[in-house]
Every structure is written in C-alpha cells, then in structure tokens.
Amino acid sequence: GESVGLHLPTLSVQEGDNSIINCAYSNSASDYFIWYKQESGKGPQFIIDIRSNMDKRQGQRVTVLLNKTVKHLSLQIAATQPGDSAVYFCAEGRGFKTIFGAGTRLFVKA
Amino acid sequence: EPEVTQTPSHQVTQMGQEVILRCVPISNHLYFYWYRQILGQKVEFLVSFYNNEISEKSEIFDDQFSVERPDGSNFTLKIRSTKLEDSAMYFCASSEDRGHRQPQHFGDGTRLSIL
C-alpha cells in the first residue's frame, strides 16, 4: 500500500552540527505531514507539521522542507544537542489517522 | 503544557484475560485515538473516536477490541481476550479537530505484556 518512510535507520552527528533527516512518501495526493520525536520510554512528541501548500516551515531550531515534485520531506535540526538524541518519525495525516514511517534514530556525539 | 496521560504505565496480564487501558486526553480536545507499537516497529493506528462513536478503525482493531468514553475525561481501550501477540506499547492520542491537518498529541503509553 501507499506509505511514508525514512531513508536511513540511524544517523550520527557531532554536537553542534546540523542534522538532516529525510523521508519519502508515495501518495502524490498526501497533503499533510508531521514530524515526531520519540525518546526512550516515551510517546511520540509533536515537533512540527507542514501542509502541502507550503514548501518550508520553521520552528525553534527545526525546519521542515517539502518537495512535492519528488515526494520528499526533510527535517533539519540546527546546532544539534545531546537532548536531540531520539528516534524521529515522519508521518502523514490521512483521514482520521496518522500514518507513521519507520523512524530514524539520531545519535549525537559529544 | 497540557498533556495526554495514560495508566497504568505497565500492565502484565495472563493470556486470555481481559485488560483495560486508560487515558485522559487533553481537556479541550474532541478527537481521540489509540495506536500501538510492537517493540522495534512502527507506530500503528488502531482506532479513532469522536462524538461517542468510532470514526475509523484499522484491520488490527478486530472484535476483541473496544473503546469507550465512560465519562467526560477518560477514554479506554479494552482487549477482551488477550493473545501473546497483543504485547506492545499502546499509545493514546488526542487532537482538537479532526486528525487530518491537525497534529495528534500522544501520551507516554502503556506497556502491555501478555504471559
């Protein structure tokens, strides 16, 4: 079936560097995407969302980019900190449900 | 910041027994959801609930599952006769408006272990 998924299961970055987590989706009709962060033992925590009428949206230290032409979105984290270590999920809002991708585990090296 | 709360944090149950997982959604939210996450896997949608009825459910949500909003604050998931494969983290979520185009806010989950 049509899905949303991440490119890499793990990503390791140096503290202070920028992180980029990528995600692809297959349904060209998809029009709402969300990034969640999940720390160990916790539930998914909302980070930022974007609607298909936008290409870019910025939050505090995070930016989401949406490329509808190639059906790709990315999450950029500026000045990555140890507290950013977690699993990051891209997700699609579809009807009443949220469809999660497989997740990328971000490791931050001190 | 308001949050979704879930109890218990960990539930251990014998196979075949009934279990009820409880959630208190964010107070002004109108839409409620249950998801599950088997260890190491994706978060999977189970069911959405609005205006005291199910609005959407997945194939996972079969006849052994039911949901209820017994009062103005609680939202429960009941599994009637648990199976080993029901072992997972179960997350409750809520949103202000319909899930589409509104972020769902998740609790920290109940770890369900079936023996």
What report would you give on this structure?
The complex is a heterodimer of chains A (about 110) and B (about 120). Chain A is an all-beta fold and about 110 residues long. Chain A has one domain (about 5-110): Sandwich (Immunoglobulin-like), CATH 2.60.40.10. Chain A contains no helices and eleven strands. Chain A has strands at about 5, 10-15, 20-25, 30-40, 45-50, 55-60, 60-65, 70-75, 85-95, 95-100, 105-110. In chain A, the strands form two sheets. In chain A, strands 2, 4, 5, 9, 10 and 11 form a six-stranded mixed sheet that branches. A five-stranded antiparallel sheet of chain A has the order 1-3-8-7-6, with no helix packed on it. In chain A, strand 9 (about 85-95) and strand 10 (about 95-100) form a beta hairpin. The model of chain A has no long low-confidence stretch (mean pLDDT about 90). Chain B is mostly beta strands. Chain B has one domain (about 5-115): Immunoglobulin-like (Sandwich). Helix content of chain B is about 0%, strand content about 50%. Chain B contains no helices and eleven strands. Chain B has strands at about 5, 10-15, 20-25, 30-35, 45-50, 55, 65-70, 75-80, 90-95, 105, 110-115. In chain B, the strands form two sheets. In chain B, strands 2, 4, 5, 6, 9, 10 and 11 form a seven-stranded mixed sheet that branches. In chain B, strand 5 (about 45-50) and strand 6 (about 55) form a beta hairpin. The radius of gyration of chain B is 13 Å and the shape is globular. The termini of chain B are far apart. The model of chain B has no long low-confidence stretch (mean pLDDT about 95). The interface between A and B is medium-sized, with 24 and 27 residues.
